[in-house]
Write a structure and sequence with these properties.
The complex is a heterodimer of chains A (332) and B (274). Chain A is an alpha/beta fold and 332 residues long. Chain A has twelve helices and 14 strands. In chain A, the strands form three sheets. Chain A has a six-stranded mixed sheet with strand order 6-7-8-3-9-10, with helices on both faces. Chain A has a four-stranded antiparallel sheet with strand order 2-1-4-5. In chain A, helix 3 packs across helix 4 and helix 3 packs parallel to helix 5. Chain B has 274 residues and is mainly alpha-helical. Chain B has one domain. In chain B, helix 2 packs parallel to helix 5, helix 5 crosses helix 6 and helix 6 crosses helix 7. Chain B is elongated, with a radius of gyration of 21 Å. The chains are: A alpha/beta (332), B mainly alpha (274). Chains A and B meet through helix 2 and helix 3 of A and helix 1 and helix 4 of B.
Chain lengths: 332, 274
């Protein structure tokens, strides 16, 4: 058996008779026993990739192999060896949590004697025992998402696809789900995860691919990507737009990446955070420029995109990212 | 060599048997899920039972006095009406097949099913079987209500059961067409809007509620020959002990034709990955 859980070669997927290219020749190698992240904004092709790998959609060209089985010619074997959760799949809200898990277990052709204890165990593991016999329409968003992941695990698959597992979740539910995913990986499960959040990819993924408009624009470990990006973003707010324009000329050389000027706000991606910030303050002070705000922060997906592609993510995706970043940065 | 060949054949037929077993098991799991969901949605229960009872009362007591059916069911309209209502209700039930599948598609449940190693046929098979089970219950309830409002079929118990099986079969065959509609519609509202204009002329431009001879002659041509009229004629004839002519055979053939054409159409629509 191959050392890779997922192998994708030059995968292309078009929609509307070739007018829309969701995937424009993507190759991936997902090693076993690790978390592999697909990072990208809405419309970058993440979900299309997951749907092809879980046999819901067929590729236009290229090949994809999951656990050694071709997704087109051996779809049933692929289905027997994967679990799918996230925005591509869902739970039945008219059934209880227990009934949902039992249904998925039986449809995986597990014997009843295995399914029932397994369902109860998963409900307990995911903190849903108390709600096990309540209809899912009474569940909170976080509970539904946990049940969704539990359903993907009923058949004990060696490979799990998680399509934006934490989109729309509150910070606490997100933390809980992250811990659960980490526990699964410790048990030896391979996870292929899509996300819009750099923070999530950073926390969970051992390896990352960044997608934009169906192309791979970067890959590596989160550390490698962040080093490539610069570890920190220095965000300076000036008293006026003209002061910002003067200020940016004084500090531009502190970064080898282009500075981003947005009105009176200047943003610079820098490697040595505090030292560079201090140097910037000294230069601005001696030029008689005053700041009304200063912030050092982790680079966001927006910064990744700005740096890798030279363009910002689509507006709606950016809004999602901002909303999901627990209000650390508020757009004026 | 011989023994190897025998072993291969045996294991192949075992695999075939076991795959058939799994298709049946998957269909039942989905049917159970659909029935559970059905009884937990109060509006669905209302739609299921209250609406046909209202139809019975409406036609029995409001319109019925103006409709004359001499020579059928001892001349009492209620005897003409109840078999018609039964046919109409079981066919209306097929709309639920379309709505339910469109909802599953819309909510992403179909995506989950399609990523599972279950039989491709099972989601549709389960849904149609669940709707069949519900129709069995509807037939029993409407029969009971019919008796309360004066329905006295004179064809005998065996013929009554035969008639019931015939219309359940006919509605089941049609439900595959509505499965196809459900999978083609972008949401459940559209599915309902697509299904209703199909069901409406078939059940109302027919002999379900009124005798054909009172219709304008151009309409009679359509009404006489369309499948629902044949089904209603067969069911009514059997229940009331009246002559059925070729209507039983025609109903069986219409149903089989629908099944042969619609099942592959719906299954292909479910399995498509483009």
């Amino acid at each position: 058996m191959s050392e890779f859980a997922v192998e994708v070669l030059d995968l292309v997927r078009t929609f509307k008779d070739g007018e829309v290219k969701a995937l424009a020749g993507v190759s991936l190698h997902v090693p076993r026993g690790r978390v592999f992240g697909l990072l990208g904004p809405n419309g970058s092709g993440k979900t299309t990739m997951i749907r092809i790998l879980s046999t819901i959609l067929s590729p236009t060209s290229g090949t994809a192999t999951v656990n050694g089985f071709n997704v087109v010619t051996h779809a049933d074997e692929v289905r027997r060896s994967i679990g799918l959760a996230g925005q591509s799949a869902t739970v039945d809200e008219n059934l209880t949590g227990f009934e949902n898990l039992r249904m998925v277990g039986l449809l995986n052709h597990l014997p009843r004697s295995v399914v029932i204890p397994r369902a109860n165990q998963l409900l307990e593991d995911f903190g849903l025992s108390d709600a096990a016999h309540r209809a899912c329409k009474t569940y909170s968003g976080g509970m539904r998402r946990r049940l969704d992941v539990a359903a993907a695990l009923v058949a004990d698959p060696p490979l799990l696809f998680l399509d934006e597992p934490t989109t729309g979740l509150d910070p606490q539910s997100r933390q809980d789900l992250w811990s659960m995913i980490e526990r699964l990986v410790e048990e030896g499960v391979t996870v292929l995860l899509t996300t819009q959040y750099l923070e999530e990819a950073d926390r969970l993924a051992h390896q990352l691919v960044v997608l934009d408009h169906g192309h791979v624009i970067a890959e590596g470990t989160p550390q490698e990507l962040k080093t490539r990006l610069g570890a920190t973003v220095l965000s300076l707010t000036f008293a006026s737009t003209s002061q910002a324009e003067r200020g940016v000329e004084l500090i531009r050389d502190l970064s080898d990446k282009p500075a981003n000027v947005d009105g009176s706000i200047v943003e610079l991606t820098i490697d040595a955070g505090p030292a560079a910030a201090a140097e910037a303050m000294r230069r601005l002070d001696s030029a008689g420029l005053t700041l009304s705000g200063l912030m050092l922060r982790e680079p966001s997906l927006d910064d990744v995109f700005l740096n890798l592609t030279g363009h910002r993510t689509e507006e709606d995706a950016a809004e999602d990212v901002l909303a999901g970043r627990s209000g650390r940065r508020i757009r004026s | 060599m011989t023994s190897t060949a025998t072993t291969t054949t045996t294991s192949a037929s075992t695999a075939q048997r076991s795959s058939l077993k799994w298709v049946a098991s998957d269909v039942l799991v989905i049917a159970q899920r659909d029935l559970l969901a059905m009884i937990r949605i109060p509006t669905a229960v209302v739609f299921m039972f209250v609406q046909p009872i209202m139809f019975v009362l409406l036609f029995r007591y409001v319109f019925g006095g103006a409709i004359h059916t001499p020579g059928i069911g001892q001349g009492h309209y209620v005897n003409f009406l109840i078999p018609g209502i039964l046919v109409q209700t079981t066919i209306f039930g097929a709309i639920n097949t379309a709505i339910g599948l469109a909802e599953d598609l819309q909510k992403g449940l179909i995506e989950r099913f399609r990523a599972l190693p279950m039989a491709r046929l099972a989601v549709l098979g389960g849904r149609t079987v669940a709707d069949l089970a519900r129709n069995v219950l509807v037939v029993i309830i409407i029969t009971g209500v019919g008796f309360l409002v004066g329905f006295r079929p004179s064809g005998g118990v065996i013929a009554y059961v035969e008639a019931s099986l015939l219309m359940l079969y006919f509605a089941y065959c049609l439900s595959w067409g509505f499965a196809f509609i459900g999978l083609s519609a972008p949401n459940s509202e559209t599915a309902q809007a697509m299904a209703f204009p199909l069901v409406f002329p078939l059940t109302f431009a027919s002999n379900v509620f009124v005798p054909l001879h009172d219709m304008p002659s151009w309409l009679q041509v359509f009404a006489r020959n369309q499948p629902v009229s044949q089904a209603a004629k067969a069911v009514r004839g059997l229940m009331l002990g009246a002559p059925v002519g070729s209507s039983v055979w025609l109903t069986l053939i219409w149903g089989l034709g629908a099944l042969v054409i619609l099942t592959p159409l719906a299954t292909r629509s479910y399995s498509r990955t483009d």
